[in-house]
Amino acid sequence: MTDKTESAAESRPLSPHLQVYRWPLSMAVSIVHRITGVGLALGTVILAWWLIAAAMGPDAYAVFESVAATWFGKLVLAGITFSLMFHLCNGVRHLIWDLGFGFSIKVSYLSGLGVIGAALLLTTAIAWVALRATGTA
Question: What is the rounded distance in angstroms from the CA atom of residue 118 to the CA atom of residue 77?
Fold first, then answer.
């Protein structure tokens, strides 16, 4: 009896899986919004480190600055900046939805693209200004 059950289970088709399922853009934007929210929570720890180091004096701040000036530190700061810009832009998108606009599939798709584009543009602009201000660009 178990042989019949096993062979029947083997012959059944698998349900759609991540490999065959195409994510809608609005779903991907929603998932990235949640991930950037977690990134911002973790970024708050770095913000607190920066503020505490600034309050403790030049020696403590020099330690923070030396870590932030490495390629990894710059990458983390860029990630936090992108998280903030993406979360901000998608929050504005949600505010517009709260007003009752932008629910059609086409507008939802275009606003998702707009959120991604605006977040990348704002992150790039902030990074450019920051690099020029520090003299590394």
Answer: 18
Would the pTM count as exceeding 0.85? no
Write down the pLDDT at residue 134.
Answer: 83
Domain ranges of the chain: 24-134
Query: If 0-12 CB within 10 Å is exposed, 13-18 middle and 19+ buried, where does residue 76 land?
Result: middle
Read off the pLDDT of each residue in 51-78 and give the average, rounded to a whole number: 96
Top CATH class, 24-134: mainly alpha
